[in-house]
Amino acid sequence: MVRSKVNDTYDFLIEIIKDQFTVNGEKKNLDIHRIDTTNYHIIHNNKSFKVCILHYDIQTNKFEIKVNEHVYKVELQDENDLLLEKMGIKKESIKKADGLIAPMPGLIIDIRVNEGQPVKSGDPLIVLKAMKMENVLKSPHDGTIKKILVEKNQKVKKDELILQF
Predict the structure, then answer these.
(1) What is the pLDDT, as a whole number, of residue 128?
(2) What is the DSSP letter of 88?
(3) pLDDT 10s digits, 68-100
(4) What is the mean pLDDT of the chain?
(5) E strand or H helix at 79, and its extent?
(6) What gap in Å lies between CA 13 and CA 49, rounded to an integer?
(7) End-to-end CA distance of the chain, in Å?
């Protein structure tokens, strides 16, 4: 289940089960054709809709979409977001990790960032060799590298702090 808030006004609960869409408990017969990564063609109730994703922020699950000639701002909340909200926890209040720790003991074989460098969520930071495998440790969020606490060819222990944001 996903909650979709459109233009901070309209609120929809959307459920997709086996290609069947339900919006606010009502089944919708949608014929969706993906044209490319950002463009779709949708037919609903014998009406044609051209949908284009203009902007998407993966961190906040916020979209800006164009449906035919109208632009809409859409915010999505997945089941985890809805559960946190039900518990009274705002997503914005969850603290971002201020450091990267070694998930296992190993050897630092590459450092792909520098202190002061801005990084995006998912950017590769460190390559850790453990059990004959190279593991690329990625940034958990957007931020700036404050301090790198390891060097190339240094052994690290599990849960050792590697760098700080």
Answers:
(1) 92
(2) T
(3) 999 999 998 888 777 777 777 666 555 556 888
(4) 87
(5) helix 79-86
(6) 20
(7) 34
User: Which two structure tokens, joined as six digits, stand for 94?
Assistant: 């969850």
Q: Which amino acid is at 124?
A: P
Instruction: Please list the ranges in the chain whose pLDDT falls under 50.
Output: none
Beta bridge partners of 57: 62
The CATH number of the structural domain formed by 99-164 is 2.40.50.100
Q: In this structure, what token pair is assigned to residue 93?
A: 């209040």
Q: What's the token pair of residue 36?
A: 């490319």
How many angstroms from the chain centroid is the CA of residue 32?
23
- Cα–Cα distance between 53 and 56 in angstroms, integer? 7
Q: Which two three-digit tokens encode residue 116? A: 């002061």
Note the pLDDT of residue 14. Answer: 87
Q: Which residue matches tokens 């849960």?
A: 159
Q: Tell me which residue of 97, 57, 91 sits closest to 74, measured CA to CA.
A: 57
Q: Where are the domains of the chain?
A: 2-93, 99-164
For residue 4 the two structure tokens come to: 């979709």
